[in-house]
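User: structure tokens for this one?
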Amino acid sequence: MVNTRGKIRRTQNTPKTRLSVEETNYQSTQSGAIISSYDDLLTEILLRLPVSSILLFKSVSKHWRLLLSHTHFIHRYDKLLKSPGLFLRNVYVPFDAENPRTPPFHSLDFHPDPRGITIVQSCNGLLLCCSNRERISVGTYYVFNPSTKQYAIIPCLPGGYEVRNTVRFMGLAFHRTDCVHYKLVCIRSLESDDEEELFQIQIYSSDTREWRICPVTFRMDCPVFDMGVYWNGAIHWAPSYRNHLYFKTEAEQLQTLPLPLEMAASKSSRTTMYFGESRGHLHLIVDVDYPETSLNSLNVYEMLSDHSGWFVKYQVHLPELWDAFPKMTISPYDFKVVDVVRGEKEEDTFTVLIIPWKLIMYNVHDKSFELMFNETDNYVSRKYAIAHRYTETLASF
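Assistant:
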């Protein structure tokens, strides 16, 4: 008799083997779907956390580190534009005084500069810093990410002290979409006469790590390159009757910025109180005309996206603030707007005002206000009120 038991056993086991493979594939598919779903949920949670938590959670596991370091996560995170506070002469002041986050730093000592370091400009999460100095042309420049503590030392302009001594402006351009590799824009004075100066523009790119002379020169009469702001692909300077230019960094072109009506009508008597960007919007507040005694509000202008003109977006009503803080009317109109912060929701938009020894947050929609900072130290004064917004970013360079 032929023994068929082995054959039968093999025949009977074959379907089980095939079923086992199918089950394995199904389980793998299920596991992949679960992991993918888990990552999507995890990402939505992590996007709402401060940078300090993101950096801490990178050490949880290799999977978390890869997830949090992925370009897709970083771009989504930076789009949320978390701005928990500002720096006032290197001192961090949170917008939410009742629930403050840990300051990004207590002192600017990321590099041992013997002269100390000060903030020059804030640009979408990166800070342009410089050695403490009386002249803009003297000192070392740094780009610093206070969220990640990464920094870079900017090489000096080629040509030695004689070239550096002609620097009239140094500004930072950075954005996660239109200027991924940060740039520094430098304006030098080449020559001057009794009427005008001839200026040259040089650009440093973090991509090439070199300075390059632009084919752009221009002449102006006593210009002031003040409050450099990067917005909409260009460096803008605080408008004034003498200088209302902006420089397109990609096309390397100078353009003229329109003046708001109250500044254009007054010729040279009105200057800029505040000039800055928030959530893709460029804002301007014209300074107080001191002889004017009937002032009841400040206009907050916004620039149209095509640079064609300004319109009044908000108003800061002053009488209520005067009643609450009488020192605002001392010597004369002793106050200044140092920031305009667009909220994630429009109704959360607010301005930050500085008066003697106090910082006030004023909601432009419901006209409410609250005290942010109360200090007798003399760095909270209108004369020295230079504020730089802190925006969290995971950008690396």
